[in-house]
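## tool: complex_structure
## caller: assistant
## args:
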Amino acid sequence: MITYASAPGKVIWFGEHFVVLGYPAIASSINLRAHVSIRDNSRGIIIESRNLGLRYVYGESPPREMRQFKHIIDYCVEEGIIDRLRRFHAVIDSNIPVASGLGSSAATSVAFTTAFLAHHGIDYDKELISRIAYEAEKLVHGKPSGIDNTISTYGGFIVYRSGSVKRIRIKWPNDYILFVVDTGIRRNTGKAVSMVLERYRRNEDIMKHVYRASEKIVNKAIKCLRSQDMECIAELMNINHGLLVSIGVSLQKIELIIHRALENGALAAKITGAGLGGSVIVLLKRELMKRIMKALRPIASHIYVVKPVNSGIIVKRE
Ligand code: PMV
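## result:
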């Protein structure tokens, strides 16, 4: 019996960083996914990552990039979620770029947890999966808000605030597309989050207004998303980027990409995720795709054409 599980990457549309202090954020899953297959293996517990080219034998010390899987196994044993550890061979394969702000670590944790629990005969339970993946996220970066594991588990568009999830049902208009432009600068989410929190602490009476402005953006964006008012969404994305600049997570390269996209007709462009590298999202009309792609190609490390999708975890057994 083989279990296959997959979970999507995500983009944060509004509210990254502000969400860490309990303000709301909006994220959606995208059509890039992490896949895990798991099957019995008499020789022990082996986890292989195809895209990282790494292999980890449980019981040995894991490579840094694979610590999250050991943590998930240990957590499930320690918390009594599984009563007896079964041997298995898991293969992880993902088309979500790593360290780019697209939630690749959360998606692999969610997909691995789903496959791991199914392999141990535990009933499919999204709340449990997301909670376990959150434990792994804590290991990857110190103070995660929980948005990445939540969106990867549930999928669709969500408003996330301190652990609570509200779905926004929207039908994505076909004539609008989203570029995820990878700056090629690998960032560290944990460092970016602590830097922002320090700035907040030093200037709380100023920064609280920035955080409140972000909340207002999210509240308005919910309405604009529901009514498919793309002009409004675009404008709010641009305002949100301004707030991200004020908390210190932009870079020259990010600004270059954003300005070039806007000069070439994009409706909006902003950091998605932690910033200080990672990715920029660009909202554009489909008819301008070629022109904007051509303008960005020389300065981007990679451009992904993505679309929001409704699915979160997908699991099947054969
Ligand atoms: O890891 P990233 O780049 O997707 O960023 C996560 C979003 C933050 O709000 C910066 C951190 C968090 O835990 O919500």
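## assistant note: The two ends are 6 Å apart (CA to CA). The first helix runs from residue 67 to 78. Handing back to user.
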